[in-house]
Amino acid sequence: MSEFIYLDSGATSYPKPEEVYTYMDEFYRKLGVNPGRSGYDICMEAGEVVEDTRKALTKFFNGTDPDRLCFSYNSTDALNLIAFGMLEKGDHAITTTIEHNSVLRPLYHLWKFNGVELDHIPFDDKGFVDPDDFKKKFKPNTRLVMVNHASNVIGTIQPVKEIGRLCRENGIPMAVDASQTVGKIPVDMEDLNMDVVAFTGHKSLLGPTGIGGLYVREGIEIRHTRAGGTGVRSAVKTHLYEYPYRLEYGTPNTLGIAGLKAGLEWVEQKGLDNIHGLETRLNRMLRDGLAAIEGITLYCQEDLTDHIAVLLFNVDGMEALNTGTLLDVDYNIACRTGLHCAPLVHERLGTSEIHGGVRFGIGPFNTEAHIQTAIKAVAEIAEMQRKRQ
Fold first, then answer.
1. Using CA atoms, how far apart are residues 6 and 15, in angstroms rounded to an integer?
2. What DSSP state is assigned to residue 33?
3. Angle 165-84-340 (CA atoms, 0-180°, nearest 5)?
4. Which long-range contacts (CB under 8 A, 24 or more apart) does 267-270 make?
């Protein structure tokens, strides 16, 4: 069988750097205990790994207080903590139609069941939202703006810096879903005017699944919506109010944090510019190759400025699922088909009526040979489809 080619990095990074596998194995063998809960040596060492990772991520986001870096299961978990911890009945929230369900569904639940008002800002034909559209929707009771940093479907990087500036001028917190960007491009809290950022560890930070978190800027508060063990001040009857305990509950995913630490170190060693530069070059090669194939429709790929390496396409007249199956079975290429947990994006593109599209997501371990093979495979599938019609 031909070489396996992984082009589904929008879903998760694979493979991970060898350093991540090695560090996680060594960590769990030597320090696989409950961190910081007791005073024996390996417990304290495990706790130091957690705190070192907290500090490293705070620096990575250009934050100021490591205690305000809170770990969660993933970005979906973090975004739920943000939405349910910052909004209540009578509040107004603004989001966009380019969001993932990790934002859309919590806000929908708050609108339907908790009496929160909600507006969605649409994106244009190129895949971007207009910051001025947010300002037009601001109300006296607007308490939160939640916006995607980069689309997991079409790869467009949204103008969060300008959106955040408008939010700050009007005293409205902005929370950013950076699931697709952290580890690819800079996510600087201060430069981008972010108040809260949610991230996951298993995508471009190259860690394992089951770990993520959020950073909360000083002056922004999120209510705790859960309660449980923290390992400190156990006699207090209520859940602790200070960060990070306010938003962390029970035994942390210590192994996941260790893997995240190793992934972050790999990313910083390689450099964001180098990673994004490689992926952008390959993405341009892929876009140009697919655009030259008769019977291929690309979505929001005309200009790759302000894009991450995520590309959506369809073979004309062919179900996306069938295209993906052929790529998998006949060419050993992994991709993602369907609605990509972002139904409003596909509604806007008109692809929801044809059950979505085919998504290629490029990662730091892809090569020119992978891209050339993918282009050739899609060309053969498109030719086969033309002969059928």
1. 8
2. S
3. 80
4. 267/183, 267/204, 267/205, 267/206, 268/60, 270/364
H/E stretch holding 240: none
Amino acid letter, residue 233: R
Active site residue ranges: 341
Digit-by-digit pLDDT tens for the chain (389 residues) are 579 999 999 999 999 999 999 999 999 999 999 997 788 999 999 999 999 999 999 999 999 999 999 999 999 999 999 999 999 999 999 999 999 999 999 999 999 999 999 999 999 999 999 999 999 999 999 999 999 999 999 999 999 999 999 999 999 999 999 999 999 999 999 999 999 999 999 999 999 999 999 999 999 999 999 999 888 888 898 898 999 999 999 999 999 999 999 999 999 999 999 999 999 999 999 999 999 999 999 999 999 999 999 999 999 999 999 999 999 999 999 999 999 999 999 999 999 999 999 999 999 999 999 999 999 999 999 999 999 87
- Separation CA 125–CA 308 (nearest Å): 17
Residues 318, 325: Cα–Cα separation, whole Å: 12
Q: Which domains are present in the chain?
A: 5-15+271-388 (3.90.1150.10), 18-269 (3.40.640.10)
Compute the distance between CA of residue 126 and CA of residue 27 in angstroms, rounded to an integer. 45
> Whole-angstrom Cα distance, residue 82 to residue 175?
8
